[in-house]
Each structure stands twice: as C-alpha cells, then as structure tokens.
Specification:
Arc Repressor Mutant, subunit A
Length: 100
C-alpha cells in the first residue's frame, strides 16, 4: 500500500498579502496610464515595459472597473497571433513640466 501524503498548505501573513495587493494596484495603474497615453500593449511588450506577464488579468480587472479597453488581433513577422490592448479614445496626458 503506498504511503499517504498529507496536503500541506502555506499560510501567507497579512503583511505579505498587503504587499501583493499593493503591487497589483501599482501594476494596474501603470498599465492604465500607459494606455491613456494612446499607446498599445501586448503581453510581451507589457513584460518588458511594466514588468508583468499578467496583462490579460489586469485588463480584465480594469474592464470590470469600467475602463473601455479594447483589443485587436495582430500577426507577428513569424506568423504568430497575439492581442494588442488599447483605449479607443485615450485621454492624452500632458507631459510633466520640467523645472529649470
């Protein structure tokens, strides 16, 4: 008879949970601000620019919160399909003023 293995669970402390929530909110805000500038994001470009591979997760959350994010299928030079996410009428944010 094979040995019975108990399922182990890892408890995450409240502080670790809060750090993860703060990190998620930060990424969500960065993605929305990037799209508001009239730019487009794909999963691979988001990984390079924002630092997360979870673009689809954040886009879904932003759409649930009322953002009008749209997507469009594209084809890479190698023929692979991917989605680009964008805002149809982005509010173009002014560049930050530089102080002399």
């Amino acid at each position: 008879m094979p040995p019975i293995h108990k399922k182990t669970t890892i408890k995450i402390t409240t502080m670790e949970n809060q750090k993860q929530i703060d990190f998620n909110i930060k990424n969500e805000k960065e993605i929305l601000e990037y799209l508001k500038k009239g730019k487009r994001l794909s999963v691979s470009s988001c990984a390079r620019i924002i630092g997360t591979n979870e673009l689809r997760h954040y886009v879904a959350a932003l759409i649930r919160k009322g953002s009008k994010i749209q997507s469009e299928w594209k084809k890479s030079e190698s023929g692979k399909r991917y989605k680009e996410y964008f805002l149809p009428n982005p509010e173009i944010l002014p560049k930050k003023q530089r102080f002399s």
